[in-house]
Amino acid sequence: MKRKDFISWDEYFMGLALLSAKRSKDPSTQVGACIVSPTNRVLSVGYNGFAFGCSDDEFSWSRDGEFLETKYPYVVHAELNAILNNRGVSLENAKLYVALFPCNECAKAIIQSGIKEVIYLSDKYAESDEVKASKRMFLASNVKLTKLTPSVDKIELSFNAFEV
User: How many Å is the Cα radius of gyration of the chain?
Assistant: First the structure.
């Protein structure tokens, strides 16, 4: 008899997004994204961080101060990173899993790339103009929005699980 405590596809792919977020060096917000084909194949992953060649030791991670001295003009969001990390495979009709609802800039890239569904965990910035703009664009372009309600609170990983 097969086990009954396995995770769903949605939990699996959101787990990959959350695991990808662990690569982010941002001290305040770590976000990951996972793009999946209509046949449940992982097409790409990404996390928020600086563009290639921009040293995370030389650019600021600050949230406050003069704009050019903060992280905001330099950080690539997880969703855009996942889109850009994809190397030549069509994203038409794909799904994007992300912990935090996408901003308007990421929404444009999601729509333009052909992704047709965004599955997210949190919409904590729902009242911001950026997220309101995202939702308006997603609605206009028929991108489905799904708030994931996982059946499990956590997925635990252990590097020692197969030790004898």
Answer: 17
**What pLDDT, on a 0 to 100 scale, did the predictor assign at position 160?**
86
**What is the structure's pLDDT at 164?**
65
Spatial distance between the Cα atoms of 32 and 16, rounded to a whole number of angstroms: 8
CA distance 100 to 122: 5
pTM of the model: 0.93
Residue among 111, 118, 127 nearest 96 (CA): 118
Q: Which active-site residues does the annotation give? A: 79
Amino acid at residue number 59 = F
Q: Residue 119 has what DSSP assignment?
A: E
Distance, in Å, from the CA atom of 159 to the CA atom of 153, rounded to the nearest integer, reads: 20
Cα–Cα distances in angstroms (integers) from residue 155 to residues 7, 79, 148, in the given order: 9, 22, 15
Q: CA-CA distance, 102 to 108, in Å (whole number)? A: 10
Quick check: 45 and 20 in contact, CB under 8 A? Answer: yes
Mean pLDDT of 157-164: 80
CB distance 85 to 46 below 8 Å: yes
Find where tokens 């939990």 sit.
11
